[in-house]
Amino acid sequence: MERKWWHGKTAYQIYPKSFCDSNGDGIGDLPGITGKLDYLQDLGIEILWLSPVYPSPLADQGYDISDYCGIDPRFGTMADMDRLLAEARARGIRVVMDLVVNHCSDEHPWFREACRDPGGKFGRWFYIRDHRPGAPLPCNWRSVFGGSVWSPLPGHPDKLYLHTFHKKQPDLNWENPEVRDEIYRMINWWLEKGVSGFRIDAIINIRKKHPFRDYPADRADGLSAIENMLAEAEGITDLLGEMADHTFRKYDAFTVGEVFHEKEADLPLFIGEHGVFSTMFDFGENVLGESPLGWYARKTVSPEDYKRACFRSQKRVENVGFLCSIIENHDEPRGVSHYLPEGVHTPAAKKLLGGLNFMLRGLPFLYQGQEIGMENLPCGSIDEVDDISARDQYQVALDAGLTPEEAVAVINRFSRDNARSPFQWDAGPNAGFTSGTPWLRVNPNYTRINLAAQRDDPDSVWRFYKRLIALRRNPVYCETIVYGAVEPYLEEQENLMAYFRRGAGQTLLVAGNFQGEAQDMALPGAVKAVLLSNLEDAALQSGVFHMAPWQFAILELA
Predict the structure, then answer these.
(1) Averaged pLDDT of the chain
(2) Is 82 exposed, middle or buried (0-12, 13-18, 19+ CB in 10 A)?
C-alpha cells in the first residue's frame, strides 16, 4: 500500500452548531471552534471534519446549501474560516469540509432560476418533469425523510421536481456536464483556500437508474424505499472518477465517502490503490437491525452482532484499502446508548466499546462528545424534537399502531438529536456551551458527564481516549496499529471480541469482555506487556486472562 499523509492520524468530527458558542446567541460558531483548537491538539487530533457551515435555511441543519462558497452568518464570516484554517494548520491539524453535492437548497440561486424558467439552462440542472394534476407520479420512490420524492415545482402546477431527501433539497442533475463542471470549480476553490479535503455526503445517490420506474411498494403508503432504485443504478464510479481527476487528485486531498449499499465489485473503485476516495466510513455496524418498515421495527444490536459486523467489514477491505472506523456521528444515536445494553453506561463499558472500535485497522473517527462518553438525549414528547427524520419516523410508528408514548420511546433511541445536543464542557449553566439559550436543549446529565470533570480524572473516559490516541502515535507500535493485519481470535466465544493486530515482528492482542459477567479468555502465548486496560488490574494467570465484566485490554505478545 502506498503510504499517505493521513494514514496514521486520528480524526474528529465537529457539528459546529453544537460545539462551542463564542457570542452567546445559542449557536456554536467558527470562533468557538478556533478557541478550542488547543483542546483538540492536546487530545491528539490531527484531522478535523466540520459539518456544513455554508449559508443555509437549515431545513436539514445545513445539509441544504444555498451558497457553496460562503459562510452562514450564524457561524461567522469567511475571515473567521480563514483564521480557523490558519490556526489549525499551526497546530498540525488539517481541516476537512463537508461536501454536499447530491442536492442543494431550494433557496440556492440555481434552483430559483430553474423555477423562473424551467425550460432554460438551470431547469436542466435539476430533475424536472411535466405532470398533470391527478396523473400518476413519474415513479413511486420514497424520500429519505418520508413521502414521495416528487413535489410541485414552485410557480408551476404542471411540473414536478425530484428530491431524494427533504422537499427543500432538490437533487442536482449529475447527468448534465455543466452541473459537474460547476461543482468541480467550487471544490477546487476550497482546496486552493487551504482545506485539506472533504467528507462527501450521500454521494452514491447522484447516479439514478434511468428510465425512472416504479418498484414494489414496501409500506402502506404505496411507495418504495429509494434504496431499491440505487441498487440498480450503474456507473457511479465513472462520475466519481471524473470528479477525483478534476479535483482531489490534483491536490493530494483527503476524501472520505458516505457510501451506503455499494456493490461489492465496486469496493476497489471506491477505496482501492487508485480509488476515487481516500477512504469511506464503515457503516456495517450502524445499519445493524434496520428494518424497511421504519425505526419502530429495528432490532436490538447484540455484542455478537457487533463483533461479526466489525470482522466482516475488516475482511472485506483487508486487501483493498482503509475504512474509517466510527461508533457514532451526527446522523446516528450515541454509540454507548446504541451498542451497550440498556442501563449499562458505566465508564468501563464505554471504554470497552471505544477501544474495540478504535484499534481496528483503518482511520479512527471520533465524534464530538464521544471522548467523554456522551449519551442519548431524552425527550418527553415529539414537540421537543428538532430532527426532521425523527418527526417522520414518529408518524410512521403511530401509523403502525404504536401509542404516542411508545413512538416517543422509539425516537429516544434513534433520533439524530441524540448526537446533536450541545457539547458538555463543564457543569456550569448550559454545560459551558453558551452564555445564552442553546438552540437545542442540553442533555440533563451534563452535571455528571462533562469534560471538566474528566480531564483531571486519571480513570475517566476522556483519559482513556487520550491514551488510545497516544498509543496509535507511539513510534514503537504505530506501524502495527496503522498497517498491521486484523485476525479474529476465539471468534466463537460468546460476548468476547478479540483480535490480533499483526505487524512485522510484533503482535498485539486486543480483547474485550462484552458482557456484565466475568469470563476467561485463553491466552495464545506469553504476554510481554499490558499496553492499555480500562480497569486497574488485568488478571493474567497460567495462560488465562481472567476478564472482569466489561474489561478491555491491549496486550503485547512475546
Answers:
(1) 97
(2) middle
Omega cis (within 30) before 211: yes
Residue of 46, 72, 106, 201 with catalytic role = 201
pLDDT over threshold 90, residue 261: no
d(CA 298, CA 292): 9
Q: Is 158 a catalytic residue?
A: no
In the chain, what are the helix, strand and coil shares in percent, each to the nearest 5?
Answer: 35, 20, 50
**What tens digit of pLDDT does each residue of 153-174 get?**
999 999 999 999 999 999 999 9
- Active-site choice (21, 98, 106, 258): 258
User: For residues 250 and 244, what is the distance between their CA atoms, to the nearest angstrom?
Assistant: 8
Span between the terminal Cα atoms of the chain, in Å: 27
Model pLDDT for residues 421-468, shown as the tens digit of each residue: 999 999 999 999 999 999 999 999 999 999 999 999 999 999 999 999
CA 389 – CA 294 distance, rounded (Å): 11
Q: Calculate the CA 92 to chain-centre distance.
A: 23
Residues 6+ apart with CB under 8 A from 306: 285, 288, 339, 497, 514
24 burial via Cβ count (<10 Å: 0-12, 13-18, 19+): exposed
What length does the chain have? 558
Distances (CA, A) of 114 to 106, 120, 123, 129, 159: 10, 7, 4, 12, 11
Q: For the segment 15-37, what is each residue's pLDDT rounded down to a tens digit? A: 999 999 999 999 999 999 999 99
275 CB contacts (<8 Å, ≥6 apart)? 268, 269, 321
> For cell 442536492, what's the residue?
103
| Phi–psi pair at 236, nearest 5 degrees | -60, -40
Q: Among this protein's residues, is 258 annotated catalytic?
A: yes
DSSP 210: S
* Res. 359 pLDDT band, cuts 50 70 90: very high
